[in-house]
Amino acid sequence: MKRLWQNIGWLLGGRGFNAVMSLVYLALATRTLGLDGFGHFAIIIALGQAVTGMANFQTWQFVVRWGAGEEGPGEATGFAIALDMLSVVMGTIAAVILVATAQLWLPLPDDLLPITLIYCVISLLSIRTTPTGLLRLRFQFGKATAAEAVQPAIRAAGAILAWFLVPNVIGFVLAWAASEVAVALALWIVAARQEPIDLSQISLRKIPRDHPDAWRFVWATNMTGSLNIAAKQLMILLVGSLGGQALAGGFRVASQLGQALVQLAQTVSKAIYPELVHAKEEALLMARRMANIALIGGALAVLVALFAGRWALEGIAGPEFGGFYWAMVILAIAGAVELVGASLESLLVSAGKAHTAFIVRAVPTILALVLLDVAIDWNGAKGAAFAVLGSSALAVIGFYVAMLNMQQIRITVETPEDQKPV
Q: Where do transmembrane segments lie in this chain (predicted)?
């Protein structure tokens, strides 16, 4: 637990720096581009991140899971790099198709389509989950945090340059793309210094040969990661498609400010997963403790959003974004729910139940996306936010039920045959 708190501390420090820098670029982008312009920017970024997220395998989990043995992370890293290459190829094909058909379903003008494709390709080439996994495998969260700090720093600096030199959507998208390249290079450099990377180990066959359940785990974690992306980026794309660029821009700002807790949930998940893999006997207790602590933190954060959210929203983005205050509060509640569920989801994945985690996440996410059109017609951005909240609540309830089932199975196995399970 001591090491876990140290790791979470490093990650939270990085998130804090990221949050401050994000406020810089968010204020500059929203006030420079306005509601419609920022909506176009939000749609381009969401499309690039959606393509990358759905094509990208969660290779950091593979490195941690299969690189922790006595043989070291060599083969696991080679397998992860091979999957990254596959992601780039698959993602580029998907990006070309999506951008070519964008005007059929997204409110993007012709002159922004080339920069949209460029951003998608750069995002794919900047996939960095493998070096992140190498650093987490060795519990080098401090070095990972320092490398990841490059992204918000470059993003904020790029936003300032765009504000001065190219004050339009293209300028801010280029600033974002530059930050993606910079952080990927930083993480690969730091990871290579920590753990030498043997390119001769790159293969899609070695790990599956030694671990029969490898591909099942790969596809389950990939689909779970894709669902997490769909819950955020695809939601923004659909909001833009159904409600226009102004609604997409406002929803993006409300989401970024209100769902800061989701980022915190991901931070907790990333820190606790390696610990759960190593501490198998205490994994369940550790996850439950983290969930209880997260419940208190989430409640406090929702109160902050409720009482200070409008001031923050209008002070950062401008008065024209003030109408998205209640959407932000609802999304903050959804973020608190995700914060509670983060350790429970990590527990399932670490126990080899990634497919269960995927199913539990998939059903509510698909339901929210299906009902999004009705939700927007009912109450605009607030309706979309309620769809996100409902999806998060159902998923976390499912994680909790699955955890109880794991506990029941464990007690049944450990209890003598002549006694009933507790």
A: 7-26, 38-57, 78-106, 112-137, 290-312, 324-344, 356-378, 384-402
Helix, strand, coil percentages for the chain (3-state, nearest 5): 85, 0, 15
Read off the amino acid at residue 211. H
Which position has the token pair 């609802």? 330
Residue numbers of the chain with a pLDDT score lower than 50? 409, 411-422
145 shares a domain with 55: yes
- Look at residues 174, 194, 211 and tell me which one is the last residue of a structural domain: 211
In the block, residue with structure tokens 């190498």? 134
Backbone angles phi, psi at 69, to 5 degrees: -75, 180
Helices (H), 195-282: 206-210, 214-229, 235-243, 245-258, 260-278
pLDDT tens string 37-88 = 999 999 999 999 999 988 888 887 878 878 876 667 888 899 999 999 999 9
* Residue 139 per-residue DSSP state: T
Sequence-distant (6+) residues with CB within 8 A of 51 are 91, 94, 95, 98, 120, 123, 124
- Same domain assignment for residues 153 and 262: no
pLDDT of residue 271: 57
59 and 99 co-located in one domain: yes
Give φ, ψ of 255 to 5 degrees: -65, -45
- Summarize pLDDT for 82-126 with one digit per residue, the tens: 999 999 999 999 999 999 999 899 999 999 999 999 999 999 999
Question: Nearest Cα to 137, choosing from 225, 70, 65, 217?
Answer: 65
Q: Which residue range is the domain that position 290 belongs to?
A: 214-422
